[in-house]
C-alpha cells in the first residue's frame, strides 16, 4: 500500500467519522431543540394556567370588594334614613302643640317629683323655660334655675344625689336605643 492510498483511506475514514459526528451533533441539536420546544410549551401552558387562575382570583377579590362596598353603601344609607327618622321625631316633639307639650312636660315633672321629691333644681331648655315655670307652680316645689340647659325642649332635674335628663334630645336618644332595630325592621 502506498502512502497516497493510506492518506486517502485515513482521509475517507476521517471524513466518514466527521460526517457521523456531524450527523450525531445535528441529531443531538434537533433532539435538544425538540426538548426545549416542549419545555417552553409546557412552561407557557403552566404560565397561562397560572395567569388564568390569578385573573380569576383577582376578579373574585374585586367582586368581594365591590360586594362589601355595596353593603357598606347600603348600610350607610339605611343608617342615614334611620337618623333622619329620629331627627324628625325630635323635631316633631319640639314642635308639639302647646297643649300636648304642656301635658307631656307635666308628666315628666310628675316623674321627677317621684324620683327626687321637692329637693332639687330644674334647668329648662330655653324654648320651654316659661312653660316649665308655669308647670312647676302646679306640679312641684322644685326651684327653676334662670340658667338654661342646651336643647330643643324639655329640662334637666338635679339634686345632690342624681340628675334626671328630660331634654327631648335625651328622651329621643333613649327611645332610639330601644326602638332602632324595630324601626329598621319596619323600613327594611
Key terms for this structure?
188 residues; alpha+beta; hypothetical protein PF0899 fold; four-stranded mixed β-sheet; 4 helices; 4 strands
Strand order of the largest sheet: 2-1-3-4
SSE series? HHEHEEEH
Tertiary shape: rod-shaped
Largest sheet: 4 strands, mixed
Beta-strand content: 5-15%
What fraction, in percent, of the residue positions are helical? over 70%
- N-to-C span: 113 Å
Tally of domains: 2
- Structure summary, number of beta strands: 4
Q: Which structural class best describes the helix and strand composition? A: alpha+beta
* Assembly context of the chains: single chain
How many separate helices?
A: 4
Poorly predicted regions are none
The radius of gyration is 46 Å
Provide a short characterization of the protein structure.
This protein has helices at 3-94, 98-116, 129-139, 168-187, and strands at 121-124, 143-144, 154-158, 163-167. A 4-stranded mixed beta sheet has the order 2-1-3-4.
Describe this structure in words.
- By secondary structure, the protein is of the alpha+beta class.
- It has 2 domains: 1-95; 97-187, hypothetical protein PF0899 fold.
- It is 76% helix and 9% strand.
- The chain has helices spanning 3-94, 98-116, 129-139, 168-187; strands at 121-124, 143-144, 154-158, 163-167.
- It has a 4-stranded mixed β-sheet with strand order 2-1-3-4.
- Helix 1 (3-94) crosses helix 4 and helix 2 crosses helix 3 (129-139).
Amino acid at each position: 500500500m502506498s502512502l497516497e492510498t493510506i492518506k486517502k483511506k485515513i482521509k475517507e475514514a476521517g471524513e466518514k467519522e466527521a460526517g457521523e459526528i456531524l450527523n450525531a451533533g445535528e441529531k443531538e441539536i434537533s433532539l435538544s431543540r425538540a426538548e426545549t420546544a416542549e419545555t417552553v410549551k409546557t412552561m407557557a401552558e403552566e404560565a397561562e394556567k397560572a395567569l388564568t387562575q390569578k385573573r380569576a382570583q383577582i376578579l373574585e377579590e374585586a367582586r368581594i370588594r365591590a360586594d362589601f362596598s355595596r353593603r357598606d353603601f347600603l348600610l350607610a344609607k339605611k343608617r342615614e334614613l334611620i337618623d333622619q327618622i329620629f331627627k324628625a321625631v325630635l323635631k316633631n316633639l319640639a314642635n308639639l302643640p302647646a297643649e300636648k307639650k304642656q301635658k307631656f312636660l307635666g308628666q315628666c315633672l310628675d316623674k321627677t317629683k317621684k324620683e327626687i321629691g321637692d329637693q332639687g333644681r330644674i334647668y329648662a331648655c330655653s324654648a320651654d323655660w316659661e312653660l316649665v315655670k308655669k308647670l312647676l307652680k302646679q306640679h312641684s316645689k322644685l326651684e327653676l334655675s334662670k340658667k338654661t340647659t342646651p336643647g330643643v325642649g324639655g329640662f334637666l332635674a338635679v339634686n345632690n344625689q342624681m340628675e334626671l335628663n328630660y331634654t327631648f334630645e335625651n328622651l329621643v336618644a333613649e327611645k332610639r336605643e330601644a326602638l332602632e332595630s324595630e324601626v329598621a325592621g319596619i323600613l327594611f
